[in-house]
Automatic annotation (TrEMBL):
This is D-methionine transport system ATP-binding protein. The lineage of its organism: Bacteria, Pseudomonadati, Bacteroidota, Flavobacteriia, Flavobacteriales. Residues 2-241 form the ABC transporter domain. One of its GO terms (molecular function) is ATP hydrolysis activity. The keyword Translocase applies. GO terms for biological process: amino acid transport. Keywords: Amino-acid transport, ATP-binding, Cell membrane, Membrane, Nucleotide-binding, Translocase, Transport. It comes from Chryseobacterium taichungense. GO terms for cellular component: membrane protein complex.
Length: 342
């Protein structure tokens, strides 16, 4: 349905030039959920904005439903854009309008009659779970609710494609999960193709069927999640698989101390991968060093017989024993860090 062919884009500032995109090609099938992941400055926002030509590429083609958007005249392009919804990190709601009025805005601009608008807005608020917030103003809404309003607004013109530009970056983990679940539900219920960009691997794991990895304006690789994970030795992909600290259980985080004290035990975040399994790691702690421990959290995935991810362990041995285990990790290149003491 969507063919991005050899897209390049260079920005010019004063006497300097910056190549944001370098001959990127990507195919997206109808009804798919595709994630584009990259670190800050990788070019992912520029790429997604070229799809509806909010950013016009210097070269290449954007072919959607058989039409090359780069060749469309202004009026025809404006017509096609109405069927491409877009949601952003910062919601972009109008504070002077109620929830219903924000959702209705695209329909009003399109000249739809009031009766049809009311019916459509009611349907959309039901889809995003905000029927009871129709008359509220944005200032009274949580971040997640604001994003739901933005999603409803993006669906107003019955788009076939939804572009999501870091749509969950401003949200807490629980709210992020609920928004991702909503996007998957919309994809399945309405058959809308979704293209999203993110710098968070957890977003990709939760909602995407296919992934494209970009870095410094270039497409590094693309494929299913398992295909991407199988390239875990690639330095860029490896960073994503292991990026970010584990979220600490809330109650534990409140009483966590930065420095060691009598009666407190270290919380150690340890990375497991194809070189060391969860079972091997726990055996080192308990069998080799005889250290009692608590496994507080595990974020581990398996690919065939290999595992990758992180464990959060509380080592409950004597101080010297705990240090010996951590020293062993370091000597054997088992990535770890002490998060604090509790």
């Amino acid at each position: 349905m969507i063919e991005i062919k050899n897209i390049s884009k260079t920005f010019h500032q004063k006497k300097q030039s910056f190549k944001a995109l370098d001959k990127i090609s990507l195919s997206i099938e109808k009804g798919d959920i595709v994630g584009i992941i990259g670190f800050s400055g990788a070019g992912k926002s520029t790429l997604i904005r070229t799809v509806n030509l909010l950013e016009r590429p210097d070269e290449g083609e954007i072919i959607i439903n058989g039409k090359d958007f780069t060749q469309l005249k202004s009026r025809e392009l404006a017509k096609e854009r109405k069927k491409i919804g877009m949601i952003f990190q910062h919601f972009n709601l109008l504070s002077s309008r109620t929830v219903s009025e924000n959702v209705a805005l695209p329909l009003e601009l399109d000249g739809v009659n009031k009766t049809a608008i009311q019916k459509k807005v009611s349907e959309l608020l039901k889809i995003v779970g905000l029927e009871d917030k129709a008359g509220d103003y944005p200032k009274s809404l949580s971040g997640g609710q604001k994003q739901r309003v933005a999603i409803a607004r993006a669906l107003a013109n019955d788009p076939y494609l939804l572009l999501c530009d870091e749509a969950t970056s401003a949200l807490d983990p629980a709210t992020t999960l609920s928004i991702l679940q909503l996007l998957r539900d919309i994809n399945q219920r309405l058959g809308i193709t979704i293209l999203l960009i993110t710098h968070e691997m957890e977003v990709i794991r939760t909602v995407c069927n296919h992934v494209a990895v970009i870095d410094n304006g270039k497409l590094i690789t693309k494929g299913t999640l398992n295909e991407i994970i199988s390239q875990k030795d690639h330095p860029i992909i490896k960073q994503f698989l292991n990026s970010g600290a584990m979220n600490m259980p809330q109650e534990l985080n409140k009483k966590l101390q930065k420095e060691p004290q009598d009666g407190l035990f270290p919380l150690v975040e340890v990375e497991v991968n194809e070189e060391i399994s969860v079972e091997q790691l726990l055996s080192i702690v308990y069998d080799k060093y005889k250290i009692p421990y608590k496994l507080l959290k595990a974020d581990v995935e398996y690919l065939g017989e290999a595992n990758f991810g992180k464990l959060l362990l509380q080592l409950q041995g004597e101080q010297e024993e705990n240090q010996q285990a951590i020293y062993y990790f370091n000597q054997n290149k088992i990535q770890n860090r002490v998060r604090g003491y509790a």
